[in-house]
Amino acid sequence: MADFNTPSFLKTFNTPGANVTGTIVAIFDAGAFLGAVATSIFAEQLGRRKTITVGVLVMILGALLQATAYTRPHIIAARTVAGTGLGIINSTVPVFQSEFSPKANRGLYVCMQLSTLNFGIFLVYWIDYAFSSTTASYAWRVPVILQCIFLLAMLGLIALVPESPRWLAAHDRAHDSLAVLRRLRAHELDDASILQLHGDILRAVAQERAIGSGSWKTLLKADRIHSRRRLLIACGIQAFQQLGGINPLV
Fold first, then answer.
1. Using one digit for the tens of pLDDT, what is the confidence trace for 33-60?
2. How far apart (Å, rounded) are the C-alpha atoms in residues 104 and 29?
3. SS3 breakdown of the chain: % helix, strand, coil, rounded to 5?
4. Distance CA 133, CA 4 (A)
């Protein structure tokens, strides 16, 4: 993230007008949308860990392309790539968290993710401020490339954690699913409780297969679990959050 109104950025791209600047800013969100849609196509087959890894690698590529940009088409394409990676990550990590963590801690982990996001925004603003007095292009290139530090850390961390036990169970890898559950919960549950938990996961997966859940049509059904209402509420919350106008302020 960089400030696109600084003298250094404007000098690099020959003082782009409001429309071009708006395109450079907004194309990142368009890329994120594309990444989220693409995730719905390939992520279930690829797995949570591999999908997140793909998203991180795409974001690293996007950061490198942005940091080396000298023309307007280059920066626009670079931000599209970076946004795509972010869309892949943001649409996969919450699912991974919900399947990976105990139900008592899921809300905490979601809050931690949002708090970390806000801290990152806070941090990069101070980094931008530190470079605001110079007109050299590194004033905006350095803040852009610094994100690679955290992205590389994500690659290291994702290599340490196992695949989601629920995803493993849903792809006929029940033995691996049980092994992951034992690795995760052995310190707090006895083996009988872990086997019971594993059985619950297998039964839930079997029930989902039996009723044909997991398709796009399921989201639009007015079924007993109110799938359509949940979809509309989720979309409404996201829409009103954006319509509130907070993003232009930050």
1. 999 999 988 998 999 999 999 999 999 9
2. 32
3. 80, 0, 20
4. 14
